[in-house]
Request: fold
Amino acid sequence: MTTRAGFTALIGEPNAGKSTLLNRMVGAKVSIVTHKVQTTRARIRGVTMAGDSQIIFVDTPGLFKPKRRLDRAMVAAAWGGAADADVIVLLIEAHRGKTDGVTAILEALADKTVGRRVVLAINKIDRVEAQTLLKLTEDMNAAFGFEKTFMISAEKGYGVEDLRDWLAGAMPEGPWLYPEDQIADLPMRMIAAEMTREKLTLRLHEELPYQLTVETERWEERKDGSARIDQIVYVARDGHKGILLGKGGETIKAVGKAAREELEEFLGRRVHLFLQVKVRPNWLDEAERYSEMGLDFRDGN
Reply:
C-alpha cells in the first residue's frame, strides 16, 4: 500500500468560509465558525483521511489589511501557513467575486508561494448564476495560474468530495503523520477555549468581538470520567466586563451553558465548565496571550 501525507493551507479573505470547509472536510468541528470576520486566530490543523492519503489542513486567519499588533500577527501566521504547505487552496466567495482584498492576495501569492501547488476554490456557488461563475473563473485564472479550479459550497457540501479526492492524490508519498483517528493537533485546552470564544462572539454581536480572549486555565480529569474545565475570559476594560456578565450574570451563564453542551458533544462525556471574567487592559500587547493563541508575538511588530 502506498501511503501519502501532506499539508494543505486554506487561505482567503476573512469570512470566506475556510473554517466551514475545514470542518466539512474533517467531519468534526475543529475550527471556530461564526458570522464575524477574523475569528480564526491560530493556524488550526484538521486531519482527514481520504483512501490511503492523510490530508492535514492548516486553517489560516483571514488575509486582510492589518492595523493592530494582533492583526499583523494573524496575517503573518496566515502567510506562514501557506509557505509551509504542499498545496494551497485559495477560497473566494462566488457572490463577492474578485474584490480588492482578493486582488491583493493574488498579487502576494506570486511572491510568497514559489514552488507550491495552488488551486482555486470558489465557495457559495449556490448564491450566483452559472454565467457569473464562468466569468469569475475566467477572471481569476487570467490573474493567476491556478493548477485547478473547484466550484463548491462548504456549507451544503457541494463539490467538497471532488476537492478532497484531488487533494488526496496531490499529497506527497510518505507515512502518515498522525494517528488515523486523530482529527486535530491543537491541544484540547485550546479547542475548548475556542469553543467558548465562539459562543461569546455569537452572543455579543458587535459589542466587543475582538477585545476578548479565552484561556483554559485548568483541566481536571475526574474519577467518574467527566472533566472539570476552568477558563478565564480576558477583556480590555471594566465596561466590557459588565457587558460580558450581563444583567444578573445571565450573559455569561448562557455562554457557559452553550459552550459546555458543545464540549460534551465533542468529547462524548460530561463536562463541568467554570468561566471567570478578568479585566486585563494590555492583553493585546502581552506575548503570553499570543502564545496561548498559537501566534508569534514578534510577528505583530
